[in-house]
């Protein structure tokens, strides 16, 4: 059990680093100054977890209790700045970094909500929020239409992954395995949406004079 | 007293349903996918109360404590989806649903703030926030100019209703009566703004070179 | 020590008044109605401190505990409305009011975070958030690109001021002196950015097909 906690902590730091990279890449596309890049990296990386902690009443929030998160974000954003000065970032790097962060944080958020003893529907919603809120804030601040509202499989991927995690856990699988399976489902669905165009049906309201 | 609490709980669920409908209708106008519709319905329905609870330090917030709210939102959003596939929604349906939600949540938010023992000016402000925040979030996410900033009587209707409620309560009216009167005033003023063009005077700053 | 607390309280009220003026001026440029002006003044003035309190878990937040803040905001917004009906506001008045508020709240936010016993990096971040969040909310609501993302020295001024405050405090200067020095540095840097074009280098990502 101790091992699982350590593993989750490392996964959490990894998720924070990945979202910091995605934030820094998004900021670079908007030609912000160095501090602007840091701010967007921080907001993207901690936005989802902060919202989750505030709603659950876990305060002070996680990155105030443990500033390691911030140093990881600064390192990841700095690395992105230096790397992309000398190299062309891999194609669609922003979308792929975002997909990893989404899947990681969705499952992590779900386990944290679970350990607070809330009903399963709240576990799904808080996990999804943990996964998507950082990216939504990044997109609002850099004035892009949030990925979540573009019509491909985004929050849906998080929800499907969390459901798989909950069901396998319920079925008696060790938490470790359920955790990996949920993460894999969320990530695969999101990558399928990026590369194969997987999407949900659209709701189109008939025209109404207003 | 027990009856009043039950009544308030039902009114709260009704307000949540009405705002979920208004969120789903707004999402339908933007051709979002099914999950996007649910997300906007949820944000619209719980945004105001969540902000109120966070500011008052009531955590976990109300819909985490009692997931009934979420099931009501899902049902209301689903109903809206199905209904508007086969029927043209009534004229100005979005604005009218929004007016009901605004009036209900303003008075409900005020009573909750009141029972937390805060000064009257805070009761007015938290009540108003409860009424308007969900709709503001809905409009920001769907990229509309928030109704609150369009120049008709919006937050003003909430404030007037809450003031009437507080004054009648102070004057010794049973809370039930004060509650209904405040709700009626807020709703009538908002409907008057929609159908009769009631509005406040505008503040126009003289031009200033910048 | 008692004197310092009283002094800080007065400085806090002054910061709230200055940000309320900056909010009212911004609202005036958008021709909002009277209530819209009040709402934007309130959001600008209390946004930063509210975010700080929520993240630190200090709830209810400061303006619910002490409604004096709200009356100061109403007075400052009312004064701005009346003054600017009869006088042309001084050139760049909005930017200068904003600079004062930024410097004041950054140092105040830092001292409050400090007294909560958090690590220095968190003191810097929460202080900076206290300084910038109100203005960011004002700019998002009035649909302007946030000052923080325009490429001049904005959050950087807050960070530099807080760093100076922390270093002088660490070096054994009386808190009073460190406080003034930090405020002076933040304000001067921000004014230098406004009038002399002081800015940070820009991070420009090489073009990437997407």
TrEMBL record, chains A, B, C:
<feature type="domain" description="Glycine transporter">
    <location>
        <begin position="10"/>
        <end position="83"/>
    </location>
</feature>
<feature type="domain" description="Glycine transporter">
    <location>
        <begin position="96"/>
        <end position="169"/>
    </location>
</feature>
<keyword id="KW-0812">Transmembrane</keyword>
<feature type="transmembrane region" description="Helical">
    <location>
        <begin position="94"/>
        <end position="113"/>
    </location>
</feature>
<feature type="transmembrane region" description="Helical">
    <location>
        <begin position="6"/>
        <end position="27"/>
    </location>
</feature>
<feature type="transmembrane region" description="Helical">
    <location>
        <begin position="153"/>
        <end position="171"/>
    </location>
</feature>
<dbReference type="InterPro" id="IPR005115">
    <property type="entry name" value="Gly_transporter"/>
</dbReference>
<dbReference type="Pfam" id="PF03458">
    <property type="entry name" value="Gly_transporter"/>
</dbReference>
<feature type="transmembrane region" description="Helical">
    <location>
        <begin position="34"/>
        <end position="55"/>
    </location>
</feature>
<keyword id="KW-0472">Membrane</keyword>
<dbReference type="GO" id="GO:0005886">
    <property type="term" value="C:plasma membrane"/>
</dbReference>
<feature type="transmembrane region" description="Helical">
    <location>
        <begin position="177"/>
        <end position="195"/>
    </location>
</feature>
<keyword id="KW-1133">Transmembrane helix</keyword>
<protein>
    <submittedName>
        <fullName>Putative membrane protein YeiH</fullName>
    </submittedName>
</protein>
<feature type="transmembrane region" description="Helical">
    <location>
        <begin position="119"/>
        <end position="141"/>
    </location>
</feature>
<keyword id="KW-1003">Cell membrane</keyword>
<comment type="similarity">
    <text>Belongs to the UPF0126 family.</text>
</comment>
<feature type="transmembrane region" description="Helical">
    <location>
        <begin position="61"/>
        <end position="82"/>
    </location>
</feature>
